[in-house]
Amino acid sequence: MSNSLNIVVGGAGLIGLSVALWLQRSGHKVSIIDPMPPGAGTSFGNAGVFADFARLPFSKFKTMCQIPGMLLDEASPLSIQGRYIPTMVPYGLGYAKACLPQNYLRGCYALTELLKASPKADDVLLRETGAINLVRHCGSLALLGTKKSFENARLGPMQERIEHDVDIQFLTPQQVKELEPDLADFHYGGVYYPNSRHTINPGGICQKYAEHFQANGGVIIQQEIRHISPGVENVSIKTSEQDMVVDRLVVAAGVASRYLLEPLGIKLPLVSERGYHLELNAKEQGFSRPISWLDKSIFLTPMVNGIRIAGTAEFAYADTPPDDKRIKNLLTFAKSMLGREPEIQSKWVGSRPSTPDSLPVIGPLKQHPNIVLAFGHGHVGLTLSSITGKLVSQYISQQKTSVDLNLFSPARF
Fold first, then answer.
1. Distance of CA 402 to the CA centre of its chain
2. Kind and range of the H or E element at 144?
3. How many other CB atoms are there within 10 angstroms of residue 287's CB atom?
4. Neighbour-count burial for 293-310, b at 16+ CB within 10 Å, e otherwise
5. ∠ CA(136), CA(142), CA(147), 5° rounding?
6. Using CA atoms, how far apart are residues 168 and 192, in angstroms rounded to an integer?
7. Could you read off the pLDDT tens digit of each residue along the chain, which spans 413 residues?
8. CB 349, CB 396: distance < 8 Å
9. Based on C-alpha coordinates, what's the Rg of the chain?
10. Helices (H), 75-169
């Protein structure tokens, strides 16, 4: 390739790996820099759902009105660490702005455009890397606990999703039982998303991507990026062990992206939204697909080593010790869904990089066009990883992008 560039991707999570693979496919020389091994951070711990249905931003006035009550309820999926509140102020202001009807509709459109383009992009990387063997196409269930919550969902968010081209089938409790006979009777019914896929090993996908990247000449450098200095035609990078100059830098470091960019005067309202998971012994019960309990904002997903229950939204510093109350709540919900006290095999907590409008940040910095951003995917990092990589590669390779990048520009803040 005559216009091959030397590019560093900062971040070895699923977003960074996907970006690196697409850039590599376009003929560029690519290195990944991250202090942790590939997929060792947040990408390892997600619920494993390719959520084609996630077309509605969380930024909605109705949701905003529910937040105070949720914060006062210890069993609620939402919590904010006291000392993290000052960091949340710009995010909170941005969230209120994103709730304005025209901004919410813009967010729905942007997410829908991304999600429609995602499966095709996923298939390219999953098949090329051999990671397709870790993916199951069984749809997913979203269940409600009461008749009232079922009707509210049916007339509200589910109707909105239908309007945004999501394939939805409403199910009675008996129909749910036919799909998942080992599930307890904790629900009034719900919906089935037939086009949803899931992975039985999110960390395994990261490993497959990293191995394929390296087998094709990619370099993974396990160091910390300490300083970034953008130039007119290149970017200088200082790591914990070396200095280098590259043509382009892609910042895909999740929550840490904020701290890489702040010394450049770039302040984005990106926050750490922590999620938890428990890996449960599943020898006595088997599920074919992810099962969401919408009232509690959690997922139960069959994984290679058991059943994973994942969820909660805890706004807190990434290095804060796990909150035992969050773990206890997950265990209580798991007991209700399984109908028994499950055995915990392992516990995990990690930080999602979240933005006020629920949209990722994808695209160049206006002030420093040799630096391209790819982070802020919140709850849909797995789902949007490959399309993000494809869009970044198209932009850097000066091709027409599959989706309008102006929708996700950092300049929107």
1. 20
2. strand 140-144
3. 20
4. bbbbbbbbbbbeebbbbb
5. 160
6. 6
7. 458 999 999 999 999 999 999 999 999 999 999 999 999 989 999 999 999 999 999 999 888 998 989 888 888 889 999 999 999 999 999 999 999 999 999 999 999 999 999 999 999 999 999 999 999 999 999 999 999 999 999 999 999 999 999 999 999 999 999 999 999 999 999 999 999 999 999 999 999 999 999 999 999 999 999 999 999 999 999 999 999 999 999 999 999 999 999 999 999 999 999 999 999 997 767 899 999 999 999 999 999 989 999 999 999 999 999 999 999 999 999 999 999 999 999 999 999 999 999 999 999 999 999 999 999 999 999 999 999 999 999 999 999 999 999 999 999 99
8. no
9. 21
10. 85-98, 101-129, 147-155, 157-163
> Looking at this protein, which amino acid is placed at residue 33?
I
Q: How far is CA 323 from CA 58, 69, 209, 227, 396, in A?
A: 23, 20, 32, 32, 41
Beta-bridge mates of residue 31: 8, 219
Strand partners, 314: 79, 274
Q: Annotate 158-169 with b (16+ C-beta within 10 A) or e (fewer).
A: beebeeeebebe
Cβ neighbours of 138 (radius 10 Å): 15
User: Which neighbouring-strand residues pair with 310?
Assistant: 277, 299
Q: Rounded to an integer, what distance in angstroms lies between the CA atom of residue 110 and that of residue 63? A: 19
**Gap between the terminal Cα atoms of the chain:** 36
**CA of 307: how far to CAs of 45, 60, 251, 290, in Å?**
13, 32, 33, 9
Cα–Cα distances (Å) from 298 to 77, 225, 293, 336, in that order, read 8, 34, 6, 12
DSSP structural state of residue 74 = T
Tell me how far the alpha carbon of residue 378 is from its chain's centroid.
5
The whole model's pTM is what?
0.96
Quote the CA–CA distance of 103 and 28 in Å, as a whole number.
36
pLDDT at 277: 96
pLDDT at 226: 97
DSSP letter, residue 327? H
| CA-to-CA separations, 413 to 85, 97, 260, 374, 406, in angstroms, rounded | 20, 10, 17, 15, 12
Helix residue ranges, H only, 216-274: 257-261
The DSSP string of 294-323 is: GGGTEEEEEETTEEEEEEEEEE--TTSPPP
Structure tokens at 190: 């719900």
